[in-house]
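Give me structure tokens for this 535-residue protein.
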Amino acid sequence: MSTPTTDLLIIGGGVAGLTLALEVADHLSVTLVRPAMDDQGASRWAQGGIAAVLSPDDNLDDHVRDTLIAGDGLCDEDAVRFTVTHGPEAIQWLIDNGVPFTPDPDPSARYPYHLTREGGHNARRIIHADDATGRAVVETLVNKVSAHPGITQRSDLTILTLLSNAEGHCIGAQGVDSEQRRQAFYAHHTVLATGGASGLYRHTTTPAPSSGEGMMMAAELGATLANLEFQQFHPTCLFDPDGPAFLISEAVRGEGGHLLNEAGHRFMPDLDPRAELAPRDVVARAIDAQIQQGTLGHVWLDIRHLGEASIRHHFPTILAHCASRGMDITRQPIPVVPAAHYSCGGVATDHAGATDVANLYAIGETAYTGLHGANRMASNSLLECLVYARSCARHLLSLPSPPNEPLNTGDDHQAPIIQPNINVELEALRKLRFKMRSVMSQYVSIVRSDQGLATASEALAEIKKELEKLDKAMSHPESMRLRQAIMLAQLTVLAASQRHESRGLHYSIDWPEHQATSAPSQLTLDSLRLAGLPH
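Here you go.
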């Protein structure tokens, strides 16, 4: 339809997308699609910090070992070592770009910035900006991006599908703008930085979580998805049914917070020698068990013993937010509940972020790199965003310069049809999305069973049929997004049902033990057809 508008199209403007844009924009033209909702996405709400070996008292092998242990036998060790090795330079890049990390007030400190410790780590290696690290990083990088003349930002777009040519190569993306007009963008290289799939669940730790739309866009072009069954539930989300989602950082337990059941008993030391600093899957299941045995619908996270001065110093954001919800955490424990937080699976990539679709890349939470295995260790997520965005940038800059002639876009009719103006009951679509999230939360969350997964599969198939009745052509933007979410939910259920063991974040009451050998799951869009599920 036209020549490409850019050398590089980046879809998503969290830490991964912003980092990549800045790293290549001196040499390549960049279009960064960064919808307004990205300000409410996972990157901005990452409180705890970024894990890296920074102190002279720490070492790379320890960080590798801790990550492998947390990943419960499914990490790709090469990916872990690659990430950990490149961590310190990624942190220095943020410091050089002006991210205001919290300094260590101790004049005898061996590292100038304060380092905290979180679950699964054997040392203090979490650099942070008070308790709002994600916000500090995003705001710093957004300011840099906005000032760069080589980056064109589009905040008025919702990308719905990727575009490919006759050879199956990705050539860009299409979607709608704020006026509901179709827009197509062509690019020599397209990068998905669209976040995870926590939005498939009712209770999440971010106000506007993605539902894996980027993962499904890649799958629709033929990309492989891996480890979808490993959805991480953060153990401690603020329990307030009448208010928005709010994460209570891992660092709260890292600094000495105690988990109490409704009888006031500190239960974690009874279950694991690491107590509140056990990996997240262990803590989340323990909290879930206490909730099931009780009547409150939550447990308590108590930090009163740390003292008001320490709480105000370490957790000013959490203190202020809880105060705005009528809770004084210096005088009362915090009600918390597990909530969908992080997708350990996603679009399978190599160390450069390349997928198995030519000219298509994925970075950040939407990608599966092998770093997290069966369970992501605390604060390795922003580390992954930084390391793989910078690695992807190095790869793209090493390629021959894009030719000046028009891009081979193939036949126009290959692009999915978008019809924003057709009459669709939007309220009915919202109800279907809520129903999908309820099904996933009931049957595909912290504890699973074969029967529950079978029930979820049947329910999701029915929801898809109801969607098709509302929009037979599946061409309205909201229908397209919901269809992608339902299909990803179906693939997640399929991946969970095929894993006949309990490992990391996937716990089945029918398969409570580890298998002797285990490998990452791999699915494509065609897996739904092979499983007898219409797609």
